[in-house]
SET domain-containing protein 4 (Eudyptula minor), 439 residues
Amino acid sequence: MKKSRGRTGRKRRRKHLQSFMDGVNSSHKMEYIKLKKWLKDRGFEDSNLRLAQFWDTGRGLMTTKALQAGDLIISLPEKCLLTTGTVLSSCLGEYIMKWKPPVSPLIALCTFLIAEKHAGEKSLWKPYLDVLPKTYTCPVCLEHDVVSLLPQPLRKKAQEQRMMVHELHMSSKAFFSSLQPLFAENTGTIFNYSALEWAWCTINTRTIYMKHSQRECFSLEPDVYALAPYLDLLNHSPNVQVKAAFNEQTRSYEIWTNSQCKKYEEVFICYGPHDNQRLLLEYGFVTMNNPHSSVYVSSDTLLKYFPPRDKQRNAKIAILKDHDFLENLTFGWDGPSWRLLTALKLLSLGADEFTCWRRALLGDVISVRNEQQTLNITAKICHFLMEETQHVLLQISQLKSNKENLKEQLALVEALRLEDLKILQKSAEILCDLNMATT
C-alpha cells in the first residue's frame, strides 16, 4: 500500500514539475485573479489557458490540454473588448461628438486609456489596466543612445515614429483641454506627452484588427482597433498559423489554431510574416531564428561601391528610382534577395551594355563580366555590413557595462544585431559558393 502511494506521489510530483518545465504558472497572482473575475462577469468562459512566465518570451499563456489543428484557443465576448464604441458610451462621448475637427479613432482610444488610468480605483477597466505593461520598448520609447545603434533603415523609421507621436500630442492639446470639466486636475498634467506615449504604445502593440462602421464624430482614418484583455497575453511566433476574427453569430472575437500544441506548452499566435525590424518597430520585441528576418541595404551603402566617374551612374540611379529598386534590398537566410542582385546587376552594366538595362531589370544574364562583378560587389557589401554589425555589437557590450538603466533596451538591439550577423554570415557562405560556381 505504502509503495503504491509513494509511486502516485512521485507521479503527481512529476506531473507538477512538467507543468513548470516551460513556464512558471502565474495565475495565482492577485492582479490575474482580479482580471479573470472581471472577465467572467462580462461573460468570458474560462478556457484551458493559464497565465505563466516563460524564460524566453516573458509573460504568456500556457495550455492545460493538448491542442490540435482546428481547435478554438480563445473566445472573448464583445463586452470584454475595448473599442471606440466603449469610448463613446463613456463620459468622454459627448465631448468627442461635439469636437471639431473630429478626432481620430486612435486619439479617442488613447484619451480613454489615459483618463481611465488617471481614475485609478474608480475605473471600471482597472483590472485590465493593472496588467498592462508600465513601460514599452518600441523605438519611440528608446533612449537616443540606443536608437543610434539600430540599423540605418530602422533608425530612420524610429525617428519618424517619434515625430509622429510628438505631432499627435501637439495636435491633440486643444481637444484634451476641452475635457477640463471632467477633471479636478489640470488636463495638461493628465494628458502629458509621456501619458500619450504610453497609451499610443498600448494600442499599437496590443490591438487586434476589428473593422467598425464609419462614424461621423471621428475623422476619416480607419476605425479598426480593439483592445482584447487576456487574449492580448498571447505571444507571437513566426512558426504557427492561426485564424482570428470577430464571430458575428457568437458576438465574440475568436482565435482558432492551425498548429498543434502540447499540454503545458506556451500557446502562440502569429502577428504576421514580419521580419525583426518590423517586429521591433511595431511591437517592441524581436524573435530569434525568425525565418522572415532580413538585413536591409541602404541606397547609400549600395552606391558606395560604384565609381562616381561612371558616366551613366546618374542615369542608372534614375532608372532604379523610377522602377522602385532603391528600397527593400535585402540579405536573407537564403542569401542576397533577387531585388538586391538585380539593382547591382544594373549598376554593374558596362558602357557598351547600358542599352540592355530593361533586360537587366528582368534578371536576364547580360554578360559573364556583369555577373561576376555583381557577385563581387554583393560580397563586398555583405562583408561591410558584417564588420559594421560586429562594431555595433562591441559598442553595445561596452554600454551594457556602463549604463545599467539601459540594459533592457540594449539587450533588444543586441538580439536584433546578432540575428543580422547570422544572416550575413550565411549570405557570405552562399556568395562564396556562387562565386566558385561562376569562376
Observations:
- The mean pLDDT is 90.
